[in-house]
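Input/output pair, single chain:
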Amino acid sequence: MPSLSSCHKERLTISRPRMSLYGSFLSDEQFQCSICLDVFTNPSTTPCGHSFCVACISRYWDGCKVCQCPLCKKTFQKKPDLHINRTLREITEQFRSMRGGAVVGREKRGGRGGDGALPDDLFDELKKRLPPTPPKPPMTMTNEAQYQVTTSLASSVPNNSPIAALNHSSGSHLPPPSFSRSSGRRRFTVSGAASSQSLPLCEIHHRGIMIYCRTDRVCICPDCETEYHPDHDTVPIEDEWMQTKSQLGVLEQEIQEMIRQRIRKIEEIRMSVAELEMAVERETAGSVGLFFALVSAIERSQAELIEVMEMSRRAAEHQADAMIRQLELEVEELRRRESTLAELAQSDDHSHCVKTFPVLSSPPPAKDWSGVSVNSDLGTGTIYRSLVALMERFQEQLKNIAETGFPPLVPEPSPVRTQSRMKRVQEYAVDVTLDCNTAHPRLILSEDLKSVRCGDRHQLLPDNPARFDRVVCVLGREAISSGRHYWEVEVGGKTDWDLGVARQSINRKGKIEVTPVNGYWFLSLRNKNKYAFRTEPSTDVHLNLQPHKIGVFVDFEKGQVSFYNVDAKIHIYTFNDTFTECIYPFFSPCTNKSGKNDGPLIITPVNMTE
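Output:
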């Protein structure tokens, strides 16, 4: 066997200063994706331990309901989440770079035909001259920690991965890295050919990166330190990490303090929201009471004005009638005297004329009407003055409220209680639709069976027993036989309507008496402002705020049917009765009154009251 000359050794050392024994242990097959048959690109490891290119295995599983490993055929009921195996990717990239500049694989090592390959004899001679693997040095705290990292990294790699193959082929476990001091600085020496398992490799020198340059704030390898950072402040990464680790406690305390500050701010915000909610309740209750009192006073004043004006009108009419009758009597008397004077002028009885004329010439008993007139005073001045005083007091109250707000305790908190009560009943919202088989022939239902209006003429519909034939109404499809139920109906803009519930056995034909005794419990509107409940006799209800949306709540077991003004969040009325059979939602848009009441009743989704 030819010997290695010193010149040949020097040339070999210079030409391959970074070459290790990787090529004698690794081959293309160990870094080959079994799907595309090429070196891994962004490798990903499946739960069964096999590795493939992320793109290849993703395409392989596209459209599959049950995913299966292409190699071992293990089945996964749920498609695994694929992540790039970063360690395998780094090893693959190192392998790819070595393949571009050195021979890879024992089968390609022969010097005959291999581009840039060593001859067999030189390769074997070189291998003999390499120093044997050094024994494991005594553990210090530093290299022991490094060794544990290396061991844990090697044990976490799948058995079929290239790293595991590299580890097994080397014949022994990786020795820990050793340190030496040079020029007062601790240096790192890579032991063994497979040191890249424990440390990331420098892309330029293919050596382990384990030095930190404080000047440039980068991690480098020993060769980079010598070539590019000769005068910089460099320390082993481990020392820098220990120094950094000492600062973690301080940083952790700062973060904990920041967390505490934010938690306190969260509680502060929540308390502010709670206070705001209480303020809203107080403001709502106060404003409702204030404006209710104002509206009531104005309505009373308006009623008094109308009454006083009507009484003044009637008194003036009575006075005028009396004066007219008296004037008519005087006119009649004067006309008789006028006739007597005319007859006297035509008479030839001179003696009679002389005797009669003095009587006729005296003034008749008549009243002086020059200063008489009908009283035009309507008597409303007192009411207007009272209303002015009321408005002044209201303005004074508004001014005080604007400056100091409403008092904490409101004498009449019923509106707030009503809001809470309404929020509770809204929790029982149900989906209500209209039953077209019960609709009167003039009623027009929407396709989604959520709205109904009255048309101008009858439609050609089958006259089934469930259909109303005289009253323009329709029932809901959902029967209520137990529990609690709530729904909302938009009524804004209509002048007449009926809403509520009806018993299943009600009469559908001919004239209907809509009373609770006959199985009807509902609220009615007539002539745009007259609200009433169809009891016996009818119960009128005065609503200060005209509702645009009505909420209907049924508690079957308690026998209650309640009505709410949804927009104002106000309870209107509650029927109390006993239900002995199923009941159904009841809707009547009433006749359209030549277009004045042609708007629909609309069942709307329930939005929970805040």
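Confidence is low (pLDDT under 50) at residues 1-24, 101-119, 129-197, 409-416. The chain is about 40% helix and 15% strand.
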